[in-house]
Amino acid sequence: MYLGIDLGTSGVKALLMDDDQRIVGSGSGALEVSRPQAGWSEQDPADWIRATQEAIAALKAAHPAELAAVRGIGLSGQMHGATLLDASDTVLRPCILWNDTRSFAEAAALDTDPRFRALTGNIVFPGFTAPKLAWVAKHEPETFAKVRWVLLPKDYLRLWLTGEHMSEMSDSAGTSWLDTGKRAWSADLLAATGLEERQMPQLVEGTAPAGQLKASLAAEWGMGEGVIVAGGAGDNAASACGMGTIGEGQAFVSLGTSGVLFAANARYLPNPESAVHAFCHALPDTWHQMGVILSATDALNWHAGVTGRSAAELTSELGEALKAPSGVTFLPYLSGERTPHNDAAIRGVFAGLGHESSRVVLTQAVLEGVSFAIRDSLEALKTAGTELRRVTAIGGGSRSRYWLASIATALDIPVDLPADGDFGAAFGAARLGLVAATGADPLSVFTAPRTAATIEPDRALTSAYEDAYQRYRRLYPAVRTAMAG
Predict the structure, then answer these.
(1) Which of 99, 210, 434, 475 is 20 to 30 Å from 282 by CA-CA measure?
(2) Is 235 an active-site residue?
């Protein structure tokens, strides 16, 4: 058996998989985000451990014999979070998360240093780890002075699981400290934020072993000795491993809290000016590009909270058939935006409201706004040298056929829906655990699921969607100007 642990923003999922990659069961533990000030987003790392224990406890209650047979564990996690530890591995402050935008000024300052884009292949985004440390150095100098280790969220879990300070390439590529082409820490970039390589975890590939499960935890969970913990992956690279998105031209769209358009690459293709992320993949000698929007299902959940209806109720009110855009436009920039704008200060907006603008019309506009944000990422990928001909949809939002039809029509490419099964980050992490524990060939393990359905673009609405997308594009500079004034 192999165990995948995915540390998400809203919860931890633990998934148990057998030697034939059949999913045996899963468990979860809930997490909440603290927002003590506008633009801030934090979690207490102790809650990650609590939620992981809850997830494993659920598995143990339902599948004790199978859990006892675990030989390898893979880790996946939300990227970019700054978990700061002192010399005794004590957490110094709550973890500053990926969607925290407080360090926008520090990010902009670092981004003016040409070495960052040249070595990392990316803009220094406010959500990345390096500007967070620059913010801590400026605003919490006593804390910064005590920092012995900077760990990403899943790597803090690894420390608890194994006692090792280790990370891997895909997650570390989102720190702004990794030389992405060389797959190694950059001493120059670390020095630019007042840090040294000794404060960074040791790097391995995601498919390589990165510690063994502590005997105390193995005993508590009923496992044997010598359980290998794999390097693992950042959440999107782990999802790609679960989807088999590892070869040139393969791509997926993820509709989770954030939205991601992910393309696998056989070579390193940086183009930071497009605000596309160019990161290491979880496999050796493989990279990937991503367009990232900060609010996907988060935008629908916000709308659900405002209207007092569940997200499922709101989407069901739309019916099955895709509608032409109504003229109401929604910008889903509730936490700022990454691709293509790199704008931490911009905020969301409804435009074109009238007396006839019902709840259903607003729901339609929210879904279309996210679809158009993903179209922005598609256009950015094109400028970065990657042309997509189809994508596979994953994530909670992919349960809405209406939303998938909207995305297919906005992107003007088919969207494939995988056959029933869990092919997300926890499954990808379990696959990484299998490879690390057995030495199996990754190409034979990271296979693609069967396609259950394909949603084609609605050709009757192509023109209407293109007009609505151009309206959407014109709205951002107008809102930015209005907010600046």
Answers:
(1) 99
(2) yes
Handedness of CA 95, 30, 99, 40 (dihedral sign): negative
Q: What pTM did the predictor assign?
A: 0.89
What DSSP character marks residue 337? B
> Which pair of structure tokens corresponds to residue 145?
């002075």
Q: Measure the CA dihedral 423/426/431/435, to 10°.
A: 160
Residues with Cβ < 8 Å from 202, sequence gap 6 or more? 164, 165, 166, 167
H runs (alpha helix) in 184-243: 187-192, 215-221, 235-243
Contact 384, 274 (CB under 8 A): yes
Quickly tell me which residue has 């498919």 as its tokens.
207
CA dist., res. 395 & res. 374, Å (int): 14
Q: What is the pLDDT along the chain (485 residues), one digit of tens a residue?
A: 999 999 999 999 999 999 999 999 999 999 999 999 999 999 999 999 999 999 999 999 999 999 999 999 999 999 999 999 999 999 999 999 998 989 999 999 999 999 999 999 999 999 999 999 999 999 999 999 999 999 999 999 999 999 999 999 999 999 999 999 999 999 999 999 999 999 999 999 999 999 999 999 999 999 999 999 999 999 999 999 999 999 988 999 999 889 999 999 999 999 999 899 999 999 999 999 999 999 999 999 999 999 999 999 999 999 989 999 999 999 999 999 989 998 988 999 999 999 999 999 999 999 999 999 999 999 999 999 899 999 999 888 999 999 999 999 999 999 999 987 777 899 999 999 999 999 999 999 999 999 999 999 999 999 999 999 999 999 999 999 999 87
Residues in the chain, total = 485
Q: Of 171, 235, 416, 422, which residue is the catalytic one?
A: 235
Q: In degrees, to the nearest 5, what angle opens at C-alpha 477 toward C-alphas 476 and 481?
A: 120
